Amino acid sequence: MDRSLARTRYVSQRNGAKSRGIEFKLTFEQWLEFWGDDLDKRGNRPWSLQMCRIGDKGCYELGNIYKGTARHNALLANQGQRHRLSVAARESLL
């Protein structure tokens, strides 16, 4: 992929994070190095790769991101939501 298209995808990902209220602390060079040979594999299909945050918390920055599939990311998000709901249910009994 040429750098111009890669930069367009970087800006799109950075702006998407901003629109969701998530801080994005990666420079273009860091983002490009993170994706490496997997850049063409990123996307929003269940089998595509996504940039995920550890625990789905914090900002997008080195040390808090990893590559995962959309399906895997959704599964972890659902598990976290179920955990938060169960904790809230237990607390309401106290």
Shape: globular
Uncertain parts: 82-90
Q: Could you tell me the strand content as a percent range?
A: 5-15%
Q: In this structure, how is the largest beta sheet organized?
A: 2 strands, antiparallel
Alpha plus pi helix count: 3
Helix content: 40-55%
The helix-strand sequence is HHEEH
Please tally the β strands and state the result.
Answer: 2
Determine Rg (CA atoms, Å). 16 Å
Cross-sheet strand order for the largest sheet: 1-2
Domains counted in the coordinates: how many? 1
Overall SS class: mainly alpha
Mean pLDDT: 84
Please sum up the structure shown:
This protein is mostly helical.
Helices and strands, with pairings:
Elements: H1 3-19, H2 28-35, E1 49-53, E2 65-69, H3 70-93
Question: Which properties best describe this structure?
Answer:
single chain, 94 residues, two-stranded antiparallel ribbon, mainly alpha, globular, 2 strands
Report what the structure shows:
The protein is mostly helical and 94 residues long. It has one domain. Helices cover 52% and strands 11% of the residues. The protein has 3 helices and 2 strands. It has a two-stranded antiparallel sheet with strand order 1-2. It starts with a helix and ends with a helix.
